[in-house]
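Q: Structure tokens for this one, please.
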Amino acid sequence: MSNLGNLELVRGNERHLAEALNDPASYRDGCFSRVVLHRGKTFKFTLCPATSALYQRLLRLDRPVRGLPVVYKQLPQVARFENAADSGNLLAYEVERLYDITDSRCHRKAARLRDELFAAVAREAYGEYPETDLELALRLARTLPALAETFTYLAHFISETGYVLDDIAARNVMVNARGELCLADPVAHHFREPQPTPPAGGLKLNWDFA
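A: Here is the predicted structure, written as tokens:
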């Protein structure tokens, strides 16, 4: 689902945000989400239960996780989409603004890291089974030191929730305002009831996240 069409605010009556929500100049659609730039802030409306579960955990941390979006708060607003085939409610969060990686000098380090990540997953099958994605996340944490914190945290998340990795592609690998690589949508829900996936022998993490 890459185009959500017209969205309606069904909770919260902020008229200015409702207008930006459907202004093509103000938003960018992803899979099951819409990112809205409005009055100098970035709002993400998401239908994905995996994204909401991750954001709720990130909100409780004492510090951001390197390589993952900074989530500032959950908003009271809820948006709804409806079309001939489907419908649903999107929860809203205020998040850090992310940018596409360009050829500019300030993005060179992130671009090299992005290319290393793409090469590492090029022949991997992922995004369907949490046990496979758990192993991949742990392997990426070991082989890509610059993303060790990112994938260690995601391995922890996958193990506890049973969600899976989202597509590691250009649309999802971006940079923040400091030029640091960030996974915009790191996890996904694969349309089956997620099951926690504790690995044999326990999960050895490099950091003790709350």
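A few notes: The two ends are 33 Å apart (CA to CA). The beta strands are 8-11, 27-30, 33-38, 41-46, 71-82, 87-95, 164-165, 173-175, 181-183, 187-188.
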